[in-house]
C-alpha cells in the first residue's frame, strides 16, 4: 500500500525535516505534495535528486491526498485540518490547535499508539518539550509509577522556527563584527543570553509552553491528576532541547534499575557515565531519532525521587519524527484508505 502525502508548511523548519524523514524512513509514498502559503507558491524545493514545486495550501489541496502532515500555524491548522478530514485525508497536526481537544488523540507512538485508533480525521502531535521530556520520564513511570515532577527546559532556537535559527546566527555574526544586534523573533537578544519566556504568559504566572507540558503530559500518559511545575527557558542552542527533571514516584526507586529501564526503552539512549564526562548534550542529539537520557541520580529532595537530564532533537522527536511515526502507525493499522485503491 502506498499513500499520497502532503506537507503543509513544507518551507519551514519542521517541514524541511519532514521531507527528509519521510524519505529516510522509506514511508510508502506514491506522491509527495509540498504546500505552504501563497508567498512560497511556485518555489522549488529539492531533496537529494528529487524536486518539487511548492503549492499554496487550500481546502482543495486535500482532495487527492491520503495523509497531510501540518507544520504551519495553529490558525491554519484550525482552518485546514477539518477540510482535510472532510475529504478523507487524515491530518497529523504539529500545532497546538487540537492537542487538548477531547475528540482528537494526542499521540506519542512509543507511549500511547492505541489512542490513534480513536481519530476522527485528525491526530495531534505533542509539544516539543513534552515529547522530549517523556522519552526520559515514561520508562521510569512504567517502572516506578510517576506521582509528580518539576522540570526546567533549555529550549533551542529552532523550536521557534526557521527565522529564529537565522536570528541567532545573524546576532553572532553581528557581534563578531561589532555591529548592533537585531532582535525580532524573541523578546530579547538570544545570543549570549537565556530567556525564561517561551510563548505567552498566563494570569497564573506560567507561560503557555509551561501549561502545555503539564496538560499534554496528563493526556498522553492518561493521568489527569498528574502534578507538574515547569519553567521553560530559551537558550542560544541551534538545535535540540534539553530538560532537567526532578520526579517523584509511587514506588521506591533504584538508580541502577532506572538506568536499565531507560536503556531498553525504544525512544531513549542511555548516556550516563559522568566519571567519563558522558552525559547527553544537544550537540550530540541533533539529528538523532532517540533522545539522550543521563545524569540519573537519587533526588535529594524527594523520598522516592529521581533527578535526570534529557536532550533530544525537538525538530525530530518533538515534531517531524513523531509525526512520521504517527503516519507509519496510520499505515500499519490501516487507519486511512488510500484514495487510489478506494
Ligand atoms: N520548530 C519546532 O521545533 C516545532 C516543534 C513542535 C511543533 N512545532 C509547530 O510546527 C509548526 C511549524 O513550525 P516551524 O518551526 O516549522 O515554523 P516555521 O519555520 O516558521 O515555518 C512555518 C511554515 O508554515 C507556513 N505557513 C505560514 N503561514 C501559512 C499559511 N497561511 N498558509 C500556508 N502555509 C503557511 C510557512 O510557509 P511560507 O514559507 O510560505 O511562509 C512555513 O512553511 C508550528 O505550529 C509550530 O508550533 C514546531
Layout of helices and strands, plus pairs?
Blueprint: E1 3-8, H1 13-24, E2 29-36, E3 44-47, E4 50-53, E5 55-56, E6 67-70, H2 74-86, E7 90-93, E8 122-124, H3 128-144, E9 146-155, H4 162-176, H5 208-221, E10 227-234, E11 241-249, H6 255-264, E12 268-270, E13 291-298, E14 305-312, H7 316-332
Parallel strand pairs: 1-2, 1-6, 2-5, 6-7, 7-8, 9-10, 12-13
Antiparallel strand pairs: 3-4, 9-11, 11-14, 13-14
Helix pairs in contact: 1-7, 3-5, 3-7
Description:
The protein is an alpha/beta fold. Helix content is 29%, strand content 24%. The strands form 3 sheets. It has a 6-stranded parallel beta sheet with strand order 5-2-1-6-7-8, with helices on both faces. Strands 10-9-11-14-13-12 form a 6-stranded mixed beta sheet. A two-stranded antiparallel sheet has the order 3-4. α1 (13-24) crosses α7 (316-332) and α3 (128-144) packs across α7. The longest helix has 17 residues, at 128-144. Bound molecules: NADP nicotinamide-adenine-dinucleotide phosphate. Residues 9-15, 36-37, 39-40, 57, 71-74, 76, 94-95, 128, 158-159, 161-163, 314-315, 318-319 line the site of NADP nicotinamide-adenine-dinucleotide phosphate (NAP).
Amino acid at each position: 500500500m502506498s499513500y499520497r502525502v502532503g506537507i503543509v508548511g513544507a518551507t519551514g523548519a519542521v517541514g524541511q525535516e519532514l521531507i527528509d524523514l519521510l524519505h529516510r524512513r522509506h514511508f510508502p509514498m506514491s506522491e509527495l505534495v509540498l504546500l505552504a502559503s501563497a508567498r512560497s507558491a511556485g518555489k522549488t524545493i529539492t531533496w537529494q535528486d528529487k524536486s518539487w514545486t511548492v503549492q499554496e495550501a487550500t481546502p482543495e489541496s486535500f482532495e487527492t491526498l491520503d495523509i497531510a502532515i501540518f507544520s504551519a500555524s495553529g490558525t491554519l491548522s484550525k482552518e485546514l485540518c477539518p477540510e482535510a478530514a472532510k475529504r478523507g485525508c487524515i491530518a497529523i497536526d504539529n500545532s497546538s490547535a487540537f492537542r487538548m481537544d477531547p475528540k482528537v488523540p494526542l499521540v506519542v507512538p512509543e507511549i500511547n499508539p492505541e489512542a490513534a485508533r480513536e481519530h476522527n480525521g485528525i491526530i495531534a502531535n505533542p509539544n516539543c518539550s513534552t515529547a522530549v521530556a517523556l522519552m526520559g520520564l515514561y520508562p521510569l513511570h512504567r517502572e516506578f509509577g510517576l506521582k509528580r515532577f518539576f522540570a526546567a527546559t533549555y529550549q533551542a532556537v529552532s523550536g521557534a522556527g526557521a527565522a529564529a535559527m537565522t536570528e541567532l546566527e545573524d546576532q553572532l555574526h553581528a557581534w563578531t563584527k561589532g555591529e548592533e544586534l537585531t532582535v525580532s523573533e524573541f523578546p530579547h537578544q538570544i545570543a549570549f543570553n537565556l530567556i525564561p519566556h517561551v510563548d505567552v504568559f498566563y494570569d497564573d504566572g506560567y507561560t503557555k509552553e509551561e501549561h502545555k507540558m503539564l496538560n499534554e503530559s496528563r493526556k498522553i500518559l492518561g493521568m489527569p491528576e498528574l502534578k507538574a511545575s515547569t519553567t521553560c527557558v530559551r537558550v542560544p542552542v541551534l538545535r535540540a532541547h534539553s530538560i532537567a527533571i526532578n520526579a517523584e514516584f509511587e514506588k521506591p526507586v533504584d538508580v541502577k534499575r532506572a538506568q536499565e529501564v531507560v536503556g531498553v526503552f525504544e525512544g531513549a539512549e542511555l548516556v550516563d557515565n559522568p566519571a567519563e564526562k558522558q552525559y547527553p548534550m544537544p550537540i550530540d542529539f541533533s539529528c538523532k531519532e532517540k533522545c539522550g537520557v543521563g545524569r540519573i541520580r537519587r533526588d535529594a529532595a524527594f523520598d522516592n525521587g529521581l533527578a535526570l537530564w534529557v536532550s533530544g532533537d525537538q525538530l525530530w522527536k518533538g515534531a517531524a519524527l513523531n509525526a512520521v511515526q504517527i503516519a507509519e502507525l496510520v499505515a500499519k493499522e490501516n487507519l486511512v484508505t488510500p484514495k487510489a485503491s478506494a
